[in-house]
Automatic annotation (TrEMBL):
Gene3D superfamilies: 3.30.230.120. Residues 79-170 form the GHMP kinase N-terminal domain. SUPFAM superfamilies: GHMP Kinase, C-terminal domain (SSF55060), Ribosomal protein S5 domain 2-like (SSF54211). It comes from the Bacteria. The lineage of its organism: Bacteria, Pseudomonadati, Bacteroidota, Cytophagia, Cytophagales. Transmembrane segments: none annotated. This is GHMP kinase. Residues 247-308 form the GHMP kinase C-terminal domain. It comes from Nibrella viscosa.
Amino acid sequence: MIIESRAYARAGLMGNPSDGFFGKTISISVRNFGASVKLYPSPELIIEPQPQDTNEFRSIYHLRDAVSTLGYHGGVPLLKAAIKKFLEYCEREQIKLPNRNFSIRYATSIPRQVGLSGSSAIIVAAFRALMRFYDVEIPLPILPNLVLATETEELGIAAGLQDRVIQCFEGCVYMDFDRSLMERQGHGYYEPLDPRLLPKLYIAYKTELGKQSGKVHNDVRSRWLQGEELVVHTLNSIADVAGQGREALLQQDTDALNSLVNRNFDLRCQIYPISDSNMALIRTARACGASASFTGSGGSIIGIYRDDAMLNRLFIELKKLNARVIKPYVI
């Protein structure tokens, strides 16, 4: 019996990055890219490395390019951490697992480190495979907490719940991470929204701009914890963008959504440094008439375009910056 599970890329549409600060967000699942995990019984527990996990390189230049694109560690540490966290959850819940071993491998088409959540997709897919293999049901609102803990506690990655929620729920989801709600029930309020309400969206990404999100968030987090007024006020305003965006989405107010996407990014600029290359993506997209904001921590942008003529301009102008443009496939 071979078990195969999948999880997809994601893009933050509004509210990003307030999810790590008890804020609100709207995100979409991007099925253009995905991660898959295959798991099957075997005499011993084996994690099968993939080409991106290799420590052999053709040259020093090959090593540099591989690290720039894939990071330093590949996917094997993600699988190890997911398996450990899955077992710890079962022990806490007093779920006795049968004495069965397995081999597990992963594959991914998600561009790495460009704000499309490639790492968490591998972990979500791994949890889904383990749940099927051991016939364990983890409540859907709780699963994102376990995925996040896998990254933060086991791998030291600074992250928020938004990515993991949308990858577990899929589609389009409005999330409210109100502190009192989180403390009372252990998770936020997650409201699936009909993807048919979404306006015309594009995503553009540029792999060489990718960076680990934890490095981006660390300074702002420390300032937020210290209660710095600018940071606290700005993050609250970014959360408000998502709340307003939910209402505009339900009302099918595309003009309001367009303005809110831009406002999200403009607020972000008040507290986060933005590289010239990332800013060039934003400015180029807006010069074409589209709105533009980050999908995550940088490297990819998302926005609303009006018609095919505008989309074509985005393809042409962003290609000049070495960026690829796609229409996100959301179910």
